[in-house]
Write a structure and sequence with these properties.
- The chain is α+β, with helices and mostly antiparallel strands.
- The protein is built from five helices and ten strands.
- It has one domain: Roll (Thiol Ester Dehydrase, Chain A).
- It has a ten-stranded antiparallel β-sheet, covered by helices on one side.
């Protein structure tokens, strides 16, 4: 592992442009099983739905064996096979609206290496700034982790218990159709999300992997279903345990008196799978408890 060579990617930048198209917004609303009408032209784009945009349209011949773009472009060529969305921090400064012309400036902020219980880990932190015609809308730090395949016979880490007192709790059934639709909407070619023989045979997973950003989006959508009326000013999330298409899980939340909301994804066995905190901005009536 030549970490010094990988650190040469620190400071590398990229700029992308896109359009917050209504048809993709309507498609994500359907994928999340909204019963009410999706946001129309001019409406505020729900938090984290910007992840549908700015995804590079890489030529088929320039994809790696895992379905991602060949390593060594904007992201460093980390020589570890498993690549996962580990977490991040998102600040919402102003609303994006359906129909906006938007741009995103990205920068590699850090590359680090450590040895974990399961072997080598490389962390890449990417900073994004998303703007519309009205100015800066979102700043985001995205944590990507690269890791070795599991060693034969290595026991799974002990699960971490999820909080026991949610104010709301909604069941999610992440079947292959849901994962395929989200992959399509985010133009995510990573085969672990839709190609079962690859996910189980090449990367050693027990099934199709539920996208980290999909889980995070479902957490905030669960907060909306739980009665949130104030806008989100900041969102921080961390993947704790992978979820697979055979796993039913729950998105849960509990408001706090300080204007934050604890959010988490919980496996049916009670294990914590994603942990998150939403900090609410001013306005409106706060978070109600009706979604219990």
């Amino acid at each position: 592992m030549d970490i010094d060579a990988l650190k040469q990617w620190i400071g590398r930048t990229s700029v992308a442009h896109d359009h917050v198209a209504w048809n993709s917004v309507a498609a994500l609303a359907a994928t999340l099983d909204w019963s009410d009408a999706p946001p129309g032209p001019g409406s505020v784009l729900p938090c984290l739905w910007h992840w549908m945009y700015f995804n590079p349209a890489v030529r088929q011949s320039e994809l790696g064996a895992d379905g991602h773009p060949t390593r060594g472009g904007f992201l460093p060529p980390v020589p570890l096979p498993r690549r996962m969305w580990a977490g991040g921090r998102v600040a919402f400064h102003s609303a994006l609206r359906v129909g906006d012309r938007v741009s995103r400036s990205s920068r590699i902020d850090d590359v680090s290496h450590k040895e974990g219980r399961s072997g080598s880990l490389v962390f890449v932190r990417v900073r994004h700034e998303v703007s519309s015609e009205r100015g800066l809308a979102i700043t985001e730090e995205h944590d990507i982790v690269y890791r070795e395949p599991p060693k034969p016979g290595m026991p799974a880490p002990a699960p971490q218990a999820a909080p026991a007192d949610p104010a709301w709790r909604f069941e999610i059934r992440p079947d292959p159709v849901l994962l395929f639709r989200y992959s399509a909407l985010t133009f995510n070619g990573h085969r672990i999300h839709y190609d079962r023989p690859y996910a189980t045979g090449e990367e050693g997973y027990p099934g199709l992997v539920v996208h980290g950003p999909l889980i995070a989006t479902l957490l905030l959508d669960g907060m909306r279903r739980g009665g949130a009326t104030r806008p989100v000013a900041h969102f921080e999330y961390r993947a704790v345990r992978a979820l697979f298409d055979a796993d039913r899980f729950h998105v849960c939340g509990r408001p706090a008196a300080d204007g934050t909301v604890r959010l988490w994804a919980e496996h049916t066995d009670g294990a914590l799978c994603m942990d998150a905190t939403a900090t609410l901005g001013p306005d409106s009536a706060g978070v109600r408890d009706e979604g219990r």
